[in-house]
Amino acid sequence: MTSTVPQDNAISAQEQEQLDELYAAFAAAHMTPLWTQIGGLMPTSPRPDSVPFLWRWSTLLPLAERAGELVPVGRGGERRAIALANPGLPGTAYATPTLWAAIQYLGPREQAPAHRHTQTAFRFVVEGEGVWTNVEGDPVAMRRGDLLLTPGMHFHEHHNTTDRPMAWIDGLDIPLVRTIDAGFFEFGPEVLSTTETPPVSRNERLWAHPGLTPVGAPAPRSSPLMAYRWEHTDAALTAQLELEDEGFPGVVEPGHAVVRFTNPATAGDCLSTMRCEMHRLRAGTPTALTRTAGSSVWQVFSGSGVVSVGDERYEVGTGDLFCVPSWAGLALDPGPDGLDAFVFSDAPVLEALGLARTAREDRP
Amino acid sequence: MTSTVPQDNAISAQEQEQLDELYAAFAAAHMTPLWTQIGGLMPTSPRPDSVPFLWRWSTLLPLAERAGELVPVGRGGERRAIALANPGLPGTAYATPTLWAAIQYLGPREQAPAHRHTQTAFRFVVEGEGVWTNVEGDPVAMRRGDLLLTPGMHFHEHHNTTDRPMAWIDGLDIPLVRTIDAGFFEFGPEVLSTTETPPVSRNERLWAHPGLTPVGAPAPRSSPLMAYRWEHTDAALTAQLELEDEGFPGVVEPGHAVVRFTNPATAGDCLSTMRCEMHRLRAGTPTALTRTAGSSVWQVFSGSGVVSVGDERYEVGTGDLFCVPSWAGLALDPGPDGLDAFVFSDAPVLEALGLARTAREDRP
Amino acid sequence: MTSTVPQDNAISAQEQEQLDELYAAFAAAHMTPLWTQIGGLMPTSPRPDSVPFLWRWSTLLPLAERAGELVPVGRGGERRAIALANPGLPGTAYATPTLWAAIQYLGPREQAPAHRHTQTAFRFVVEGEGVWTNVEGDPVAMRRGDLLLTPGMHFHEHHNTTDRPMAWIDGLDIPLVRTIDAGFFEFGPEVLSTTETPPVSRNERLWAHPGLTPVGAPAPRSSPLMAYRWEHTDAALTAQLELEDEGFPGVVEPGHAVVRFTNPATAGDCLSTMRCEMHRLRAGTPTALTRTAGSSVWQVFSGSGVVSVGDERYEVGTGDLFCVPSWAGLALDPGPDGLDAFVFSDAPVLEALGLARTAREDRP
Amino acid sequence: MTSTVPQDNAISAQEQEQLDELYAAFAAAHMTPLWTQIGGLMPTSPRPDSVPFLWRWSTLLPLAERAGELVPVGRGGERRAIALANPGLPGTAYATPTLWAAIQYLGPREQAPAHRHTQTAFRFVVEGEGVWTNVEGDPVAMRRGDLLLTPGMHFHEHHNTTDRPMAWIDGLDIPLVRTIDAGFFEFGPEVLSTTETPPVSRNERLWAHPGLTPVGAPAPRSSPLMAYRWEHTDAALTAQLELEDEGFPGVVEPGHAVVRFTNPATAGDCLSTMRCEMHRLRAGTPTALTRTAGSSVWQVFSGSGVVSVGDERYEVGTGDLFCVPSWAGLALDPGPDGLDAFVFSDAPVLEALGLARTAREDRP
């Protein structure tokens, strides 16, 4: 759709002068005509400013380590987190228009102080262990492959009780909340609520039993389960591929297993503004090409492969992160050892607002 | 509320004759006046016909075994199930006005043929193992402490592949469905769909992972998870009591842990018409006395205790079953080894219709 | 499905004796075998005890008037209501297993005192006016064609401020609530809360505006709107038939307009346990034959027609009431002036429990 | 919260150099540290870029009329609509970060061609009449005080069949949909689907009856009712204030009546992304000061008053529009004839995402 003024014919100099006067009057009155803008405002399909981009783990991790040497963590800066900044969104620290993704780094024996905010957060661990995140005073161990939640307005703090540093990925809805101006933030106490290091958090002990609801436990609006452990995720993905081998349903397409992380108290998405999933691709079974309204960020968890995002093509390995702008074609082609990948997206937002849309092309 | 005609004063013989004529005319026209019935129709609080009753496992099991010797199982009778018949509901085979409970018995190498029906069913195993129930062709092992579902209109059949018999408890909503005349029934094939004996069913492989939803699996309206294994139930109850010891929330009242069996695709009750829960009582912590609109059936799973239901008082042990009519006071006092008890009720029905009500009295 | 013991072969006298002993032991233990009952308990399709039946207005009204002469209305009997008693449910005053329907009669200047109960109620006016029902102190005028609600646990009382008597139809879920033992009842004050006679109730002034929700009004779980006026119902039905004439959607089948009375705060059924609808049939357009799981009661509001219910066939006119048992075939054939009919059913109950089912046969 | 690097102490030149190198490496890798940005990203309460602003009808209307003389309406530019451009969001045509508001002008006998888009739209008429908007081929008259809907992906076109021009307000979620890149747009046919001018649209004939649902009509996800007529809105507001005078509930605060425009098929907001309400303030009763997360745009419909938005203070009259950024304090003080005002906001978005928040201060 073109965005020109809808007048094919030449206009006279006088007419042009009158138009110029009109547009100047619009500007003075803080008014903008639709007819000069509609193509940009209302394209026939999404035209994101954000672009496909790949951040390599081999770049991210050394920089995070260097920040660990030079930058303290504490009140004010709050977290030693370095965000992925989409080149198409200059001046921001946003991976996509709705999603914030960062690598966070906590050195040996370091602590990050408590705060809470309306922004929803999670952490995903691609390697390492040794940090506990205390969510409302409940210490949650962080280990390889785990997804850990921090729903909105839950106080949280981190502590590393080991002699090794640890890095992980943070995902938040900071850009979305900033756009709609819905962010509130509060500092917590200076001193951590606890530095205990239990292997299993209290919320897991209450809620991480399949199909079992604790009748006496408070049922918050957000997920009561804060930790999704790799052992369960891995077992669920393994089972889907085995069922496929046996001829039964379970995979989303040939060789492609997916689990969605969900709130056991509602069966909906684990977070109100972000969908989190783990995908497992069997070697030799590339995915169909899909387009989805809304954006996402992926991190390779293990294995390797070739990823197409729009016109870009990336060879990816463990830890690498890439973003998928709205309606960009996405296809994953796993390497010889297959590919495990974590993804988070703004799908719950688009679904809640009636704006979700997906298209799928089978590939030759 | 009294159910007499609202006239305190004596009436004349002529008036009585006119009234008699009127009432005869009502009867002839198939009409019934409210004012002579309202006390029975609309009592100030529920006045169930059903009564508290205890069925001892030591009575039930031998009779089921004897039926195993004398009565074949097969097409027509369909199941060797013997129902608990509430003495207050003569002429029926109902445990309560909404709930059907039976002991089912399958001898060595026996099979029960496939059928399906709109009535919702579950099985609970208080002892033994060796039977698989195939639900829509998916073989589900039945073992001690397990809850196995058969949602409405799912074909199901049973097979015992061992040399030992097995008995278990069936729960259905037969009385409710009969009252509202909503029952449909179909026979399945004469030959079983499978006699495989996998330790884990396919539905569990897809759905029995805490907080993980298989994106590629069909999501039915009824629960996609057909088996709730004792190892999970036991672990969840144990955790609640341990959290209580540590000073954290989780139990419903002191010493009283409860898990509700829920549909992982909706987080609601595992069955549309019946609530299923497992309770664990610590020795020395009797429950409060509660009254609940709607009825329930309990089975002691392990341990012992003293149970009060209305004016009745039962000493109960493993396998014993008792029913709780609507609004009857219920209190459980666990024995020296504590008490584990399974319960199913019509609570989802009353909640769906806006009729749920509970009262609770702390005991001295 | 037959309900015999599943044994084709002759059994020996000794075997019979053993069986007799077993069955006697069952009876002594309050146990009932499934295999001798299953055909009745679980039929292949509903086999209601209730039967189709027609109650003529020309019979009902004179008997109600006679009751007005002989029986006072007041505390204890509470209401001068005479229920339709289904011949298939002897000993009850039930129109169907879930629905209670009655003609209620209030003489000139009479009052009926306040009470409330968990049973849900409505009133429908086939003729006359002059009575106000005060629902929680809000006087609601009752006029021809109006549907007036009394959701559960709302205090209500009636007063006739005219010199003429008035009769109307009451519908309640008394049988359902009695079956599940969920009934609670309370008397209100002896003196009426008000005897005002406004033409429009307060709840209508807040809620009877299409698509407009009063932001400052309390939003109860049950319908906040207590009166559905004939002028709106009539206009909505008229519009549907006019749209059909113009070639646009709106009717449910040719010549058949239907409006459902709904809760404006939820858009669901106006009552939690009963669905209420008004049907208008154009002359010359008989309905398809439909079967529905669950039961209903119809009242002709105006016009005439021939109604088939199961094997019965009724010629009906204004005020006549008939009941439709579960799964009985129903067809309506309007007379030369068409047919307007009010119906209430237990459809919300079956839908809430996942038991709704409908079949439809086009007629030759 | 400050956004400085969390280091109070002076650092050495060498340290600074190392930091500079690190930050340069971040930039090269398209990474941005959180600790330098967190104050802006995550403020303690919303810090909108958008500012309070007032657009006067006396400015808007003449400019729209002038555009009517100079700019044709037709394919490409699509609509002669001039948007309100918030001075705090330069380079955009957005009234707030989520809401688009414009004055649209259609001259005598003019037409605007059909298109559809995922963006949700409505029109509100502050004065005039004569235009019909055809929504999916259903002509909807536009008259003073009416709210007319165009839910997402509904084809719509306008035609003015009179000799007078007409101007009205359009509201859309263009900024929100642009931010999350969820916009799809399609042209419709060049020729209008109809130029009929019925006084009542077909959707109203089916759906604009209080509490009455047409059983035979299709029930879309979006509102089936496209027109909310002033006569109903006015009557509902009048009733709330009368009930207040009589001592009954209904107003949201003294002298302040509010109706929300809702979808009669769901009882939720009339549009998935925008809440629409009409407020009526009685003279002499200023509102409390409220702060709300999320933004809104108001238009005075009749009367006058003084409005405070944040630190701004506006004297307003009929047709004037003003926007309220997130968390800006809002208070309305009606003039001697009271004040009627229409408002639309992004409240459904914040509620769907769990981000809604409101604070209220009673004024001295």
TrEMBL record, chains A, B, C, D:
<dbReference type="InterPro" id="IPR013096">
    <property type="entry name" value="Cupin_2"/>
</dbReference>
<dbReference type="InterPro" id="IPR014710">
    <property type="entry name" value="RmlC-like_jellyroll"/>
</dbReference>
<feature type="domain" description="Cupin type-2">
    <location>
        <begin position="104"/>
        <end position="170"/>
    </location>
</feature>
<dbReference type="GO" id="GO:0016702">
    <property type="term" value="F:oxidoreductase activity, acting on single donors with incorporation of molecular oxygen, incorporation of two atoms of oxygen"/>
</dbReference>
<dbReference type="Pfam" id="PF07883">
    <property type="entry name" value="Cupin_2"/>
</dbReference>
<protein>
    <submittedName>
        <fullName>Gentisate 1,2-dioxygenase</fullName>
    </submittedName>
</protein>
<keyword id="KW-0223">Dioxygenase</keyword>
<keyword id="KW-0560">Oxidoreductase</keyword>
<dbReference type="InterPro" id="IPR047183">
    <property type="entry name" value="GDO-like"/>
</dbReference>
<dbReference type="InterPro" id="IPR011051">
    <property type="entry name" value="RmlC_Cupin_sf"/>
</dbReference>
